[in-house]
Design goal:
- This protein is of the alpha/beta class.
- It has a domain of 68 residues.
- The protein has a six-stranded mixed beta sheet with strand order 6-7-8-3-9-10, sandwiched between helices.
- A hairpin with a 2-residue loop joins strand 4 and strand 5.
- The longest helix has 15 residues.
- It is globular and about 55 Å long.
- The N and C termini lie far apart (39 Å).
- 37% of the residues are buried.
- Bound molecules: adenosine-5'-triphosphate.
- The site of adenosine-5'-triphosphate (ATP) has 13 residues, from helix 1.
- This is NitT family ABC transporter ATPase.
- GO terms for molecular function: ATP binding; ATP hydrolysis activity.
Length: 250
């Protein structure tokens, strides 16, 4: 998946991006970081074709993505589950538009729930689940339609730290398990530790209009230990790119 020469401005004239080029290879977990308000969520929405660029293109398998497609799915920051539906019904919702027979929908939903570690909990309602379980349901819903690309906007932000840590430890294996047709993940996060823990590549956005000011490949075996000095070096590099202002200091 890639974006080429992307420019974007909102209807009120505010120019968010100037010539963004990002390529995420098959099998890779990519993260987008940047100061608050730089345009991270906007960029995810452009990746999913939920917004239209002023110029430039979004490509999947080399073909332009001109409108939202089930091949690209989004997990939102706020945990969106419908309280009156069971875990299984919440997941089946994402398959509604696909014209799939009910039995097959149930099978896909059950497979997705199993992938996120919720087998046996299909009939629970959201109020009977922890925050972490609800976020797993959101992830299962995004995976059920078997997308090629998963976009995640701060997926751990509304979880308490312990729950977030548990889900973070699982998420890479959930997403890139051998049965999953998923090809890549693009996550927005402001939590640099989380980013170094999970990503293969980090794209750093900065300035206004924003550009990509750095691309860092994280070459550490998984699971990654945040106490490893190499981990700290990556954090320092990202921090430096995030705090550097255009033109440097005089
Ligand atoms: N619908 C909109 N119309 C006009 N401007 C908008 C709109 N949505 C966002 N913006 C502006 O565009 C810029 C980028 O917003 P965006 O939410 O993408 O940033 P972000 O990097 O994700 O921020 P944060 O880290 O705080 O979540 C911000 O300055 C924001 O105020």
């Amino acid at each position: 998946m890639e974006v080429l020469g992307l420019d974007f401005r909102y209807d009120n004239g505010y120019k968010v991006f100037n010539n963004i080029n990002i390529k995420v290879e098959r099998g890779k977990f990519a993260a987008i970081v940047g100061p608050s308000g730089v345009g991270k969520s906007t960029l995810l929405r452009l990746f999913g074709a939920f917004l239209k660029p002023e110029s430039g293109t979004v490509l999947l398998h080399g073909k332009p993505v001109l409108r939202p497609t089930p091949l690209i799915s989004m997990v939102h920051q706020s945990i969106v589950t419908f309280p009156w539906m069971t875990a299984e019904e919440n997941v089946m919702l994402s398959l509604k538009t696909k014209n799939i027979p009910k039995d097959e929908c149930k099978e896909l939903a059950s497979k997705a729930l199993e992938m996120v570690g919720l087998q046996g909990f299909e009939n629970l309602y959201p109020k009977e689940m922890s925050g972490g379980m609800r976020q797993r349901v959101s992830v299962a819903r995004s995976l059920a339609a078997e997308p090629k690309v998963l976009l995640m906007d701060e997926p751990f932000a509304h979880l308490d730290e312990l729950t977030a840590e548990g889900l973070r430890q699982d998420i890479y294996n959930i997403l890139f398990n051998p049965e999953s047709p998923l090809e890549c993940v693009i996550m927005v996060s402001h939590n640099l530790t989380e980013v170094v823990e999970l990503s293969d590549t980090v794209f750093v956005l900065n300035n206004s209009p924003a550009t990509v000011v750095g691309q860092i490949d994280i070459e550490m075996p998984r699971p990654r230990n945040s106490r490893d000095p190499v981990f700290d070096n990556y954090l320092d590099t990202l921090y430096r790119l995030l705090t550097k202002k255009k033109g440097g200091t005089r």
